[in-house]
Amino acid sequence: MFKILGTGHSLPEKIVTNDDLSKIVDTSDEWISKRTGIRRRHIATVETTSSMGIEAAKNALEMAGVAPDELDLILGTTGTGLNVSPGVACSVQEAIGASCLSFDISSACSGFIAAMDVAAKYFGAGAVKKVLIVSSETMSRYADWTDRSTCVLFGDGAGAVVLGEGDNLLSIKLHTHGNTEYVGIHGARGNCPFADPIEACNSFAFMNGQETYKYAIGAMSGDIVEAAELAGIPLEGIDHIIPHQANLRIISATQKKLEIPMEKFCVGIEDMGNTSSASEPIVLDIENRRGRFKAGDIVAFTAFGAGLTDGGAIYRW
Ligand code: ACO
Predict the structure, then answer these.
(1) Among 33, 46, 260, 268, which is least packed by CB within 10 angstroms?
(2) Which element (helix H / strand E) includes 219?
(3) Is 269 found in the same domain as 122?
(4) What's the pLDDT band for 196 if we cut at 50, 70, 90?
(5) Looking at the structure, do residues 28 and 154 belong to the same domain, yes or no?
């Protein structure tokens, strides 16, 4: 499979607090922080999905000591690009001057784990020696800023990892439970004169918060148990958990269900909100640069998202 050689992230400069949001929609710092754990988020002003992805990629490559022309594959994940195509992987390839195969994976908030799974298969087939994963999201461009129940949840940012050959990924398992109603992002409908007008709609994120909440807790806890079993690691043997950062209450409920101490969870949602597929590599890089992970530590990843998709992975640092 692979080992992580470097990590990187990028966040927009502008920070928007809960109090700032209470001037835009009928909400309060108390409601948002109590129900979600979010206190502030970074919101793109001049930054784009591509520009954040490029910065995160450069940071990861620098830490890894890998030159762009050494890369054999770039995998991008985003549901919120400025353009539907080309994908963020192609934008990053162009900007860093790489020449390898580059493409995006669409798996909503589970995108980073999905990309790790695809990378693992490429490594397993002996087709690559160095892979860059870039997850970048501009959720703010797809949030409905008149809807208090969704706009308060999201933030923007990008995370990246550089992977090399190694046997540090111990297990990875993804799931899809076809359900397009609970959560997602409407696409643009264009102006086709032949389309049924009923089809015309905005391109905003939509969500059934309570159903998504229930699904998320079962999926994240179940995926950690499954990935740990596949890796032959007992739950007590996990040193750190990097969960998708959607809501602190979802992370806490997962923690209680698994009876794993909260200190083992890497949590960054307070400062960044839900950055979809970018949330895990951002938190990974922040904690990595703080020196949290020691050689031999067992790190679990878990995510859920639209699709419905979810997955878990166990990695030995
Ligand atoms: N400020 C103040 N009040 C609000 C706000 C707000 N921002 N948003 C909703 N409310 C109100 C509602 O109108 C409702 O009022 P009512 O009782 O008078 O009708 C009340 O608060 C309760 O609303 P609920 O939706 O029941 O609140 P809940 O406790 O379920 O929390 C939340 C909502 C935070 C969205 C929660 O359901 C959740 O976290 N769900 C999962 C979200 C998630 O993970 N989504 C995935 C995101 S997309 C992705 O990651 C792919």
Answers:
(1) 46
(2) helix 209-231
(3) no
(4) confident
(5) yes
| Residue 192 confidence class, pLDDT cut points 50, 70, 90 | confident
Instruction: Work out the angle between the directed axes of helices 49-64 and 279-289 (0-180°, nearest 10).
Output: 40
Distance in angstroms (rounded) separating the CA atoms of residues 285 and 173: 22
Query: From atom 40 of ligand 1, which residue's Cα is the shortest distance away?
Result: 209
* Closest C-alpha to ligand 1, atom 25: 209
Instruction: Taking residues 243-251, report their average pLDDT.
Output: 96
Q: Which domain holds residue 123?
A: 2-167
The ligand 1 atom nearest the CA atom of 205: 48
Q: What is the mean pLDDT of residues 231-240?
A: 97
Residue pair 235/225 in contact by the 8 Å Cβ criterion: yes
User: What stretches of 184-289 show up as alpha helix (H) in DSSP?
Assistant: 209-231, 248-258, 269-272, 279-289
Instruction: State yes or no: pLDDT of 200 exceeds 70.
Output: no
What average pLDDT does this structure show over 38-53? 98
Contact 30, 39 (CB under 8 A): no
In the chain, how many domains are there? Answer: 2
Kindly state whether residues 259 and 281 are assigned to the same domain. yes
Q: Give the residue numbers annotated as catalytic, written as ranges.
A: 109, 244, 274
Cut 0.90: pTM above it: yes
**Do 112 and 259 lie in a common domain?**
no
Structure tokens at 294: 């020691």
State mean pLDDT over 132-145.
96
Q: Quick: pLDDT tens for 49-76.
A: 999 999 999 999 999 999 999 999 999 9
Sign of CA dihedral 166, 168, 171, 175: negative
266 CA → ligand 1 middle, Å: 23
Burial label for 294, CB within 10 Å (0-12, 13-18, 19+), is exposed
**How far is it, in rounded angstroms, from Cα 190 to Cα 271?**
35
Cα–ligand 1 centroid distance for 312 (angstroms): 26
**What stretches of 44-143 show up as alpha helix (H) in DSSP?**
49-64, 88-96, 111-124
